[in-house]
Amino acid sequence: MKDRIAKERLNIILLVDASKSMGGKRIEQVDSAICDIKKYLVDLQAENTNVDFYMTIIPFSNNASFYNDKEMINIEQFKYDGIKTGGWSNLHFAYEKLGDI
Known about the structure:
Blueprint: E1 8-17, H1 25-47, E2 51-60, E3 73-74, H2 91-98
Parallel strand pairs: 1-2
Antiparallel strand pairs: 2-3
């Protein structure tokens, strides 16, 4: 008998400080954590046919934009190769970008 539970879409949104002060070891730790989160969600989605995980990252410093210029991407297609740092922190830009989702 086919599973009759409706498939749920769960959106994961990560706001990441990408200012100059996050350079070096700090951003390396963030990159590692994001890779771990992605792997965990891919595995969790594979185990559970009733959920689809979608993810977006909004790095912010002098401005904010969606990582890879995409609002939400299915976790299996989400490609991550790190965040570049620079500028100064302005969380206001990140909150504005959240309004676009």
